[in-house]
Structure formats: C-alpha cells, structure tokens
C-alpha cells in the first residue's frame, strides 16, 4: 500500500537564495529619474550668454562715456528745449561755453535719462570733440543706480546657476544609474549550486 505524502507546514518552505535575491532586488529597485536633455542645458547656456551680452551692451558704453567726460569733458549751463518719451529723449540748448546756442540730445545712461521738463535749466558735461556725447553733470560726477544692468546681471546669474544645477543633476544620474535588474521568473525551474534541478514538490 502506497505511503501517503507527508504534508509540510506552509510556513516551512523557503525560496532558493538566488530567487530570494532577485525578489528583493525587484522590491528595492526604483525607476531611474529622467536624465536632463542636452537641449535643455544648451538653451540655458544660450539664455545666460544672451543676458550677459545685454548687460555688457548696457554697462560698457555708459562707463566709457563717463570716463571720457571726466577726463576731457566741458561743463556748460543749458536749457531744456524738448522732452519726449516716444521715442525717449531730452534735448537741450547750451547757453554758455564754446557751444553756446547749439542744441543736442543728451546721451542715455544705459537707457535712462535725467528728470527734466521743457524750459528748465540743467548743467551738462559734453565731449568737445563730439558735443552730442553729453550727460547731466550730476551723472558724470555720481552715476545713478544702473537698474537695467543690475536686472540683467541678476537674471544672468539665476540662469547660469539653474543651468549648472541641471548639469550636476545629469552627471549624478548617469553616474549612479545601473542596468535594470532582470530577475528570473519564479515559475522557472530553480537550479541548485551543484547543478541539479530543484523541485518545488515535496519529496515522498
């Protein structure tokens, strides 16, 4: 008479080590974060360079003009004869000095002009070689706060910082990434270390 199979308690069975390792790997594995694309990085660098170029275009000519007027400029009293905002300009007529009676438009300082009204008086410092290069005398002595330059400079730093952070994140993700685990299916026949097949069925 055939012996009956001896049933093993349900909690006594253990998976083979390599199957358990694969199962744990699946549990621990997380999808790799999306790698920032090069086009995003290049766009950030391009915007940073553009803002830096605008900053230089606003800052350098104004500073050069101030230096020139401080070194060789002539200061003269003038009367404001025209002010407009579309397009923006301030026109003055010299009432003293070698250029007396001549009208010129003041040069902008990074896109800014002094507060003026038609008929008002103002001291102007101009380049004797090019009288059209003229600024308010007060701005030559003490240049105003250059808000446009400060704004574009701050934007340049923000864009450059964000782009650098994206580059660091890309490098970090690529270095820390690893091939996706490919665990064996638990339904496959397990193999013992000695090469013999391991059967899930209970021994008789």
Summary tags:
rod-shaped, 204 residues, alpha+beta, five-stranded antiparallel sheet, two-stranded antiparallel sheet
Q: Approximately what portion of the residues adopt beta-strand conformation?
A: 15-25%
Give the spatial strand order of the biggest sheet: 3-2-1-4-5
Cα Rg: 39 Å
The number of distinct β-strands equals 7
Helix content: 40-55%
Secondary-structure element series:
HHEEEEEHHEE
Q: What distance separates the N and C termini?
A: 14 Å
Low-confidence stretches: 183-204
Helix/strand-derived class?
A: alpha+beta
Largest sheet: 5 strands, antiparallel
Number of helices: 4
- What is the average of the pLDDT values? 79
User: What overall form do the CA principal axes indicate?
Assistant: rod-shaped
Fold topology:
Layout: H1 17-28, H2 38-72, E1 74-85, E2 88-94, E3 103-105, E4 121-126, E5 134-136, H3 137-141, H4 147-176, E6 190-191, E7 197-198
How would you explain this protein's 3D organization?
By secondary structure, this protein is of the alpha+beta class. 40% of the residues lie in helices and 17% in strands. The chain has helices at 17-28, 38-72, 137-141, 147-176; strands spanning 74-85, 88-94, 103-105, 121-126, 134-136, 190-191, 197-198. Strands 3-2-1-4-5 form a five-stranded antiparallel β-sheet. The radius of gyration is 39 Å and the shape is rod-shaped. It starts with 16 loop residues before the first helix and ends in a 6-residue tail after the last strand. The relative contact order is 0.17. Mean pLDDT is 79; it is low at 183-204.
